[in-house]
Amino acid sequence: MTSDERPQRQRVVLAHRRGARLVRTRVEVQEQTQVGDALVRGLVRAQLGLALRLGAVVVCLVGAIPLLNTLFPGLSAIPVFGIRLNWLVLAGLVYPLLYGIGWSYVRLAEQGERDFVGVIDAEP
Question: Keywords in UniProt for this one (predicted)?
Answer without folding.
Answer: Membrane, Transmembrane, Transmembrane helix
